[in-house]
Task: inverse folding
């Protein structure tokens, strides 16, 4: 598990690391390429590797600062909104690093003067500064070398200031790249979270429909047990077919429309067993739907509500179901007789859930219309075809 997480984290940060590696490789290769072109043009006779090595040594403090900023300062201070602490830490670390590097550098004025004095002593000459020098007149005043100044004075002039400016640009570049990739990772995480929430909500809605559907079906069987035992047995057989579909097919995100049509046929046959000839049931379902796919249990809620709210045992009733595939659309029609139960039809669990599912699955790419008259309740649904 830890290895899988490490691999995932590495993949997420790989593009950012590749940019850093590419930039530092370019920085290191600049003196090599420059010396190579000088060799081709005849300005030099051999590659000056010693000079290239010295340039790389001058780059080393910047690389160390970059690593500290990239691995410590930026993630633990800047990205955690501790901006003041980050700025102070970056300035302090840069100042100390470049001051120490300047003090131990072979080009430091103090070290250069010590080398000159040592060479002159070896040759038996008086070291400069050993003789008494006359007090300089006002017109002969000269600025003392950096080695004779207080340690903090060179911080505001010369190569130190240039290094600080380069360090500032380097920190800014590092922060800009980090913020860019952090925003991309945050967007990916947000999309993944939204996708997970969407899947969770869809599963919740789907499994809320299933118990509601089975509750109504079991009520039908209960009503038939005392009326007609043979019909009750046949109803149980039809119910087993429906349960098999729900258990083994409805867990998929989409299924073949042909299987959904078969499921609707079984459901309608289950309803026919319960009702008498006073209920006219008209069904028109396609026999060949090709490879068209739809979300499972998408149409049964409408059919279920049609039988539940559109059938009366005292009056002649009707239920009509029609499903067609026309071009790039799946068209579904369902109508039933209306006996002033429209409020239940509009606010039942099934219809509320089907509206939510349609919004989550298709966004604004579907068309659902519900039309109610004094004696009829109609539902029309249009969906885009998917394969």
Result:
């Amino acid at each position: 598990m830890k290895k899988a997480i490490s691999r995932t984290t590495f993949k997420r940060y790989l593009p950012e690391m590749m940019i850093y590696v590419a930039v530092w490789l370019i920085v290191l290769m600049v003196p090599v390429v420059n010396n190579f072109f000088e060799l081709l043009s005849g300005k030099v006779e051999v590659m000056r590797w010693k000079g290239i090595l010295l340039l790389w040594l001058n780059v080393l403090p910047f690389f160390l600062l970059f690593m500290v900023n990239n691995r410590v300062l930026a993630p633990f201070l800047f990205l955690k909104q501790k901006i003041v602490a980050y700025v102070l830490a970056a300035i302090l670390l840069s100042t100390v690093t470049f001051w120490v590097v300047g003090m131990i550098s072979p080009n430091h004025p103090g070290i250069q003067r010590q080398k000159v004095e040592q060479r002159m002593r070896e040759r038996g000459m008086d070291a400069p500064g050993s003789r008494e020098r006359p007090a300089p007149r006002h017109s002969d005043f000269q600025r003392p070398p950096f080695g004779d100044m207080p340690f903090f004075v060179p911080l505001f002039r010369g190569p130190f200031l240039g290094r600080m400016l380069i360090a500032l640009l380097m920190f800014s570049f590092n922060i800009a790249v980090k913020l860019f990739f952090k925003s991309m990772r945050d967007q990916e995480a947000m999309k993944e979270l939204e996708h997970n929430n969407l899947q969770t909500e869809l599963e919740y809605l789907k499994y809320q429909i299933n118990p509601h559907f089975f509750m109504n079906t079991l009520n039908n069987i209960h009503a038939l047990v005392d009326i007609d035992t043979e019909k009750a047995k046949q109803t149980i057989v039809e119910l087993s077919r429906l349960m098999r579909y729900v258990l083994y097919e409805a867990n998929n995100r989409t299924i073949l429309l042909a299987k959904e049509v078969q499921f609707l046929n079984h459901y309608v046959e289950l309803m026919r067993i319960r009702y008498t000839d006073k209920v006219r049931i008209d069904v028109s379902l396609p026999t060949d739907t090709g490879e068209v796919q739809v979300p499972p249990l998408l149409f049964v809620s409408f059919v279920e509500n049609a039988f539940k709210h559109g059938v009366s045992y005292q009056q002649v009733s009707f239920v009509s179901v029609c499903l067609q595939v026309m071009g790039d659309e799946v068209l579904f029609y369902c109508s039933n007789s209306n006996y002033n139960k429209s409020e239940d039809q509009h606010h039942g669990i099934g219809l509320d859930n089907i509206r939510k599912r349609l919004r989550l699955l298709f966004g604004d790419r579907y068309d659902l219309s519900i039309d109610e008259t004094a004696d009829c309740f109609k539902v029309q649904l249009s969906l885009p075809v998917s394969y």
In short: The radius of gyration is 41 Å. The chain is about 65% helix and 10% strand. Confidence is low (pLDDT under 50) at residues 138-156, 342-347.
